[in-house]
């Protein structure tokens, strides 16, 4: 692909994971966005990313003396941000809020524009304070800055745009600004909505209905999110309460889910929404230079010794774990990595569900597991999951580790240096799961439920393992029992014997894991699909 004649795309995202210490991200959605705009730079395509400049980012979450997570926030300063000298104004609660616009291409990414309300002119400078830090009014204020402010920023910077891409529903208010612009030019609401739809494409990420954000219309109105539209016009777009995903689906010409299975799930979830755009599948991908260890790439490409390259990286991980936790794992024994957001559907503790089965392996150290992950600051259930993992570490101090304050550094270390990458969500609730791609390309073998991206990649017993058979039921008790049995069968019956008794086969599987994923799940393929199926309208 070349830049010539390609539509230029304004890409809106609440978060960007570009570097561990650039705290503009919380999790998978942001990591995807960060990888996306690095990949866009690599192949030179005109994608213009827009986001918010978070003062404190997402929570720093550590473990206290009782083994429970606690949150803390710090102000961060970044000296590499360029001041564009441009400011735009949005109206929030009837007051002018001025947004300063920063720019950075510091991480090998397409120039990223970040809106910032933390300037002395503003009475409320805290709108861009904490990423996902608050609910309700504050979230809407952030979304006004991202959406309405984002469109105004593009105008003020005089950047021409052909397509607006909303990475998740957070940016839906950008469409309300596009509609307002057209109505100011003389269009009726109907005309403006129709024309705006032709410019927008939308990516949905969340297969859990409650995870799709909504707000009462009265609150949106009070905050200023109507932006000149009437209540009934807003209701036609997003319903009452106003659902950001429903709005995204009705404001776009086409939408996508982030894996084939997820697109199926999303089509079922939203089938009752009249007037929505079709949802196709474009599977997520990763920026390989960011996540894949060069020593593995070299060993793979030169047909070198993959196992010894891996052993070296695994040793570094073991050193890193010891530095962080004081626990020294055994480099000869199987090391399982598991890092994810602490959400119940991810079932971090499924492996502990039958102590009678797993305990002997943990006591002997034949199975070692390192966990990491944050709970949302306001999610008590998630916090209990973290506390439970920490208590498992105390119970099995030689073989279970929890690393606090999950970030991109921990993510990279674990997906490079573990032997096995474990993933056991309640199918079909994992939309994609890019950490598994990072692992696969590093020759870290996936052992996973057939959810998210894995059904597309898994050749069972050849490039990794599937847990179970894709069983689904809304009876979670039954599902958990079924899947925990399947997990033990796969892990103890197939993974362990290969690891301990057949190193040659293991190394062969590492090679297949890399071979079958390195192109298919790299950002270039994903970007080409977005251009071919979403951005270039037929
Ligand atoms: C890769 C990554 C994610 C996304 O991984 P999932 O498989 O979706 O859990 C989230 N957080 C960090 C820090 C990552 O590196």
TrEMBL record:
Record keywords, A-Z: Carbohydrate metabolism, Glycosyltransferase, Pyridoxal phosphate, Transferase
Gene name of the encoded protein: glgP
Listed PROSITE patterns: PHOSPHORYLASE
Protein's UniProt name: glycogen phosphorylase
InterPro entries hit by this protein: Agluc_phsphrylas, Glyco_trans_35, Glycogen/Maltodextrin_Phosph, Pyridoxal_P_attach_site
Pfam families, per the entry: Phosphorylase
Function: Phosphorylase is an important allosteric enzyme in carbohydrate metabolism. Enzymes from different sources differ in their regulatory mechanisms and in their natural substrates. However, all known phosphorylases share catalytic and structural properties.
SUPFAM superfamilies: UDP-Glycosyltransferase/glycogen phosphorylase
Catalysed transformations (reactions): [(1->4)-alpha-D-glucosyl](n) + phosphate = [(1->4)-alpha-D-glucosyl](n-1) + alpha-D-glucose 1-phosphate
Enzyme Commission numbers on file: 2.4.1.1
Keyword Glycosyltransferase (UniProt): yes
Cofactor(s) in the UniProt record: pyridoxal 5'-phosphate
Family indicated by similarity: Belongs to the glycogen phosphorylase family.
GO BP, sorted A to Z: carbohydrate metabolic process
